[in-house]
Amino acid sequence: MSISNEALEKLVREIEAQSIAAQQQIGLVRTQQASKQREMRLAQLTRNELATLPESTAVYEGVGKMFVSVPVPALKDRLGTEMKEMETEVENLGKRLHYLETTAKNSQEHIEKMLKGSGQA
């Protein structure tokens, strides 16, 4: 069961294209993951600072070009919710990264296997 050289070349090109696309996606996902982790860290630091303030402290949040007074407990709750959402997003990005890395690895293995197989024929 041998495959013609043209068909083999076409198959190698398709697998190579999948591998390149997976590598590009891996870079994108890693960037997104790093960004979310920075946002989480910033939210955690802000929440830690808010924990040191008394409940009656006037705290302001930027909204467009103005600042709006926000109660400390409400801001703490919002930051906690945002952190949970970001943790979920980072976890999902980690799963996607694992999938893409596996896809890229498998594509490379298939190419190598095909090239070794055609070299023996």
Automatic annotation (TrEMBL):
Ranges in a coiled coil: 76-103
Organism the protein comes from: Neurospora tetraspora
PANTHER family documented for this protein: PREFOLDIN SUBUNIT 1, PREFOLDIN SUBUNIT 1-RELATED
Sorted UniProt keywords: Chaperone, Coiled coil
Matching Pfam families: Prefoldin_2
Protein name as it appears in the record: Prefoldin
CDD domains, per the entry: Prefoldin_1
MF annotations from Gene Ontology: protein folding chaperone; unfolded protein binding
Similarity comment: family membership: Belongs to the prefoldin subunit beta family.
GO cellular component, one term: cytoplasm
InterPro entries documented for this protein: PFD_beta-like, Prefoldin
